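Changelog note: in this version the structure field was regenerated for every chain. One regenerated record is shown below for reference.
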Amino acid sequence: MQSYDTLVEALDGLRQQGFTQDYNLKEDRLKCQQTSLELHPADFEIVDVYRFEGMTDPDDETVLYAIKAKDGQRGTLVDAYGAYAEAISPEMAEKLSVRPGK
């Protein structure tokens, strides 16, 4: 796994590796804005996870997921961590808590 110092650096690096889709987190699925593709927890795997803390507040954390869909499409999901996290289904929470490759 590559290491990155900033979220922007990580996003750029992953795009160069072919992770070109941008996913948004919905309650029970991921949705790609560019293609309207929707992925439920069984439809994708997490390839890598990167965590970043805010410069001024350690509680201001962001998580970047590198996602690979069953159909081979690859993209990223940027999610707030902690107090700013979205309300999601138990299945989606379990999927996002899984370590890459498991």
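Spot check on this record: Residues 7-16 form the longest helix (10 residues). The longest strand covers residues 44-53.
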